[in-house]
Amino acid sequence: MTIHSVVIQKLLTTNAHIGRQVATHHFKQFTYGFRNRQSIIDSDKTLICLRNALNFLSCLSRDPSSSFLFINTNPLFQPIIDEMTSRVTSLIPERASSLWKMRGFLTNSCSPKKFRSRHKKLVFAPTKMPDCVVIFDTERKSSVFLEAERLGIPIVALVDSSMPWEYYKKVTYPIPANDSVQFVYLICNMITKCLMLEKKKDGAKGPGKKATIKDRVESTSESEGSASDEVLVVPYENLAPMSCDVAESKQLLDKLVVVKYNGALGKNMGFGGPKSLIEVKNGSTPLDLIVNQIQSLNSKYGCNIPLLLMNPKNTHNDIVKALEKYSTLDVDIHPFEQGDHTQHESFVSEGCEDKWQSSKHGAHFLSLMNSGTLDVLLAQGKEYALVVNPDNVAGVVDPKILNHLAQNSIEYCSEVTPTTSNGLINFMASSLQGMFKLEDFTSDHSEKSVKGFKYIDTRSLWLNLKAIKRLVDTSALNLDNLSTLKLFENSIGISIPQSRFLPLNCTSDLFLLQSDLYSFTEGMFVRNDARVSPSDPSIALGPEFEKISDFKRRFETIPSIVKLDSLEVNGDVWFGADIVLKGKVVIDASPGLTLRIPGRVVLEDEEINDPTDI
């Protein structure tokens, strides 16, 4: 019997797998189904979530100054929690003042923290904000979730199948399980062992003053080669909002220039021109979207954001012709043909003309800056550049990110997005700010390639032009690799929402963009609020849909996919109008069989192989 089997059996003995009679939509990924009208929780996924939570608590406990707040109102759990805290404080005395149980409200900062009477002292709240909140019984804890989110405190919590989404999404490390007494005892025992193990590891390093997390990061950055091994990732939700002062916003946006590349061709989809000219939504192209968004910002704030378009020779004429319709807009557009203003022309694959080495767009930007354009931009008062990935349809200006760069003197910022290989678990973990190794990032966003990685590098860069000027003569400056950030004085990654990274590489991506899952306003894609899952559905269309012309003919209208988890289509399949897809849908037509899906049908968790299955 393997160790994994033993651990799973231990979980089963605690009845952690027995859920409620109701399973919310966002919780279904943790369940097998229903039995005797009760949802059955997948113990393997419970174990994965539990390991992630314990790993976070262990990492946090390495800093002696860190503190934990345990929230509980269930009297059955209280003796277990008391035993855990007393055991930890007896074996680790320095933790005596850093483990708290629920005593008051976190945000009640204006009220007295201590009251003295003749006989005793009452303490209603911790004297400082905790670094983590652990919630054992999540029922009736809505105020705790709201307060912790307001203060930016990560939450570790037991969650059940009936927990509402508005509170569920605030949990950083959810542990899906039935909150039985046995399971709570198991968790408290594991937390105790994790804290003791970290104490033992720290003591094995020898006596002396214990370094804080900040000290360790600083010492690591000073060691040889370590600075290039980690990058600080800041969640998009943690960024401060843009100033409401129009004049102040104008002053900031006037310092920005946008650089977009139009070398990605659409020949693999049967389109002869650049991807920037493919109609993706309501007749609008990716080029239309970014031009309209810049036009909207210029009109709203009275600023001037120039758009620099870099085109290879085989797409330059098409792009210049498409720019004619923008002549009446208040947008300063400058097209550049590669070969006239750049030093690198060999980034189009020689073996296949329709494959653009989009990972090389940083080198093209550097080459453009070397051509004298950098000096012109600096003379115009430009300080920041947004370098947009040519494959990313949703890569547009975000004033919120620009404001963060200016306030924190950031010289290099790469937009990253959490992978979906670990599902909602990894999505919740992405809400934490922290250091991540470069091995955790990949630039290949295909479903098979993201396994084992935590973030996808979207190849959209925010750069400080003054820093580029300082490094422009350095041959080591290579913007195509995250390791470049070691050359900059202050560099970060920002974990962006899914709506800012929508690649267009095949008709399956086009299906997603044209569906009701996304709409766009003022050149920006907006996600449908009715979508509960944080990740987009997986779409896999067969070779019959590979060309855009075939794709358009086979769909009368794009089906509704707001509640879709995955769609797989193979064979000669035709779709009617106003179809609704939910859950997991597989449509596989046998060779020689034409399968027509009639209009106005609703397909939910179905596998269709012939017309009788509809």
TrEMBL record:
What family does the database annotate?
A: Belongs to the universal ribosomal protein uS2 family.
Superkingdom is Eukaryota
Species classification: Eukaryota, Viridiplantae, Streptophyta, Embryophyta, Tracheophyta
Region entry Disordered: which residue ranges?
A: 201-224
Identify the EC number(s).
2.7.7.9
Q: Which Pfam families match?
A: Ribosomal_S2, UDPGP
A GO cellular component annotation here is: ribosome
On whether Glycoprotein is a keyword of this UniProt record, the answer is no
Name of the molecule in the record: UTP--glucose-1-phosphate uridylyltransferase
Q: Which InterPro entries match?
A: Nucleotide-diphossugar_trans, Ribosomal_uS2, Ribosomal_uS2_CS, Ribosomal_uS2_flav_dom_sf, UDPGP_fam, UDPGP_trans
GO biological process, alphabetically ordered: translation; UDP-alpha-D-glucose metabolic process
CDD domains assigned to the protein according to its UniProt record, in alphabetical order: RPS2 (cd01425)
